[in-house]
Amino acid sequence: MRPLKILLIEDDAIEVMKFKRVLKLLALKHQIIEANNGEEALSILKIKDIIPDIILLDLNMPNLNGIEFLKILKMDEFLKHIPSIILSTSNNHKDITECYKIGIAGYLVKPLKYEEYVDRIKKTLEYWSSNELFCQ
Q1: How many domains does the chain have?
Q2: pTM value?
Q3: 111: which of 17, 98, 116, 118 fits an S-S bond (Cβ 3.0–4.6 Å)?
């Protein structure tokens, strides 16, 4: 499995720790770039030498939420091709529809059971690390 550069946009420190714990458990060597919200993520992405292979983001964040972030991202000619995957507790049909209309690559609902979470993250990262990604 090819290592990925992953921009993880998540405001909940426990969720960030959980994600990192899964990577460690699965012995995955992906590089994680952390942002606490959409605003911080956009600042990171402005530094053009830090371009992630994929973006994993929560929807409910302060300052700039996931949907607002995606709308800005998809307007940027240089960044709009980065696969963006929602990782959220919301299974609200309106949120899911809105995200796909904006152009996300996937939508994962965070399960309550840790084992299910591990399985979903594993499958998602296996898929994207074996996928041919857009090269800038």
Answers
A1: 1
A2: 0.93
A3: 116
